[in-house]
Amino acid sequence: MGWVSLLLLLPLLLRAGDRSLCTISFPFIQVCGKTLTQGRILGGQETTLIQWPWQASLKYKTHHWCRVTLIHSSWVMTAAHCFQQNAHDPGAWKVQLGSRTIKPHKLSFSYLHSRRVTEIILHPFYFGGPPKDIALAKLQSPIRFKRSILPICLPTSTTQFENVTMCWVTGWGRIKEHEYPRKPWNLQAVELPLIDQKTCDLYYHIGTKLPPFISRIYDDMICAGFKEGKKDACHGDSGGPLACEVKGIWHQAGIVSWGDGCGRPYRPSVFTNVSVHTDWILRTIKSNTFSLMPSKLLFLLTLQLS
Ligand SMILES: *[C@@H]1O[C@H](CO)[C@@H](O)[C@H](O)[C@H]1NC(C)=O
Ligand SMILES: *[C@@H]1O[C@H](CO)[C@@H](O)[C@H](O)[C@H]1NC(C)=O
């Protein structure tokens, strides 16, 4: 009886062990935010994935829909509004990692770095529009990290970006309001100054009749861009990261959420402030990640054998 149940259990145990080994050999806290490249590119230009290896495309059926960032070998983060009506149907979504273009060439073996989504978790207080425009998606199987696939760090303290003034937005979206992304749909990067929530709220009241006590920019939002407009994150970039380098390590300060037009004066891009949600993110990942430690596995095996 003992042997029979062991034989039945074995494949299950081995699979579980395999999965936990992956998370053990890649503790995401330690490998995050470091790119394997020297030097950097300049604003508003095409860029390589090795410089932004956490950047991925979220596909609905076969279409590029939003951007996501890799924060763990099995988890990506994006804006809640990206899932809209289809959060109940994780099977329709896919994440394409390790590809510089949203339409990878058939011979590039990009499917090796593509994963189905098995779980979609929207922020519990997201009600169809910002604030709380944040969501997590679990990948069907963990992704193996390599030069072009690495996670970005989450902010660990609220003062972390205190002395940071310039951050980067990367994406495949439009550069100008009436301009569509063009072939070959390569990744673009733009450097933007951070704007705190209060200043941004002031800007967003300019040119409106809205009284100042009615906020347009809520507590869990931050902005980035120039007062006079011009460079911006723009449409089609939803869900993507606002990434800031702090002491040589890249952290995700924001998630592209919304904006008013594109590159207009006093209308900088608005992001979900990730610092506000770090606790929720870590708690959600922890409570939805099954892991059986090898020590427990051995214990179970000896239990069966004895
Ligand atoms: C920001 O700069 C000030 C002055 O140099 C310093 O005291 C403070 O510790 C810095 N903050 C962070 C988070 O590095
Ligand atoms: C983001 O949220 C944190 C935590 O509430 C806050 O300390 C920080 O100032 C916010 N960032 C901006 C730029 O407003």
TrEMBL record:
The keyword Transmembrane does not apply. Residues 41-286 form the Peptidase S1 domain. One of its GO terms (biological process) is proteolysis. CDD domains: Tryp_SPc. Residues 1-16 form the signal peptide. Keywords: Disulfide bond, Hydrolase, Protease, Serine protease, Signal. GO terms for molecular function: serine-type endopeptidase activity. It holds the Pfam family Trypsin. InterPro entries: Peptidase_S1_PA, Peptidase_S1_PA_chymotrypsin, Peptidase_S1A, Trypsin_dom, TRYPSIN_HIS, TRYPSIN_SER. PANTHER family: SERINE PROTEASE HEPSIN (PTHR24253:SF153), TRANSMEMBRANE PROTEASE SERINE (PTHR24253). This is Peptidase S1 domain-containing protein. It comes from Vombatus ursinus (Common wombat). The lineage of its organism: Eukaryota, Metazoa, Chordata, Craniata, Vertebrata.
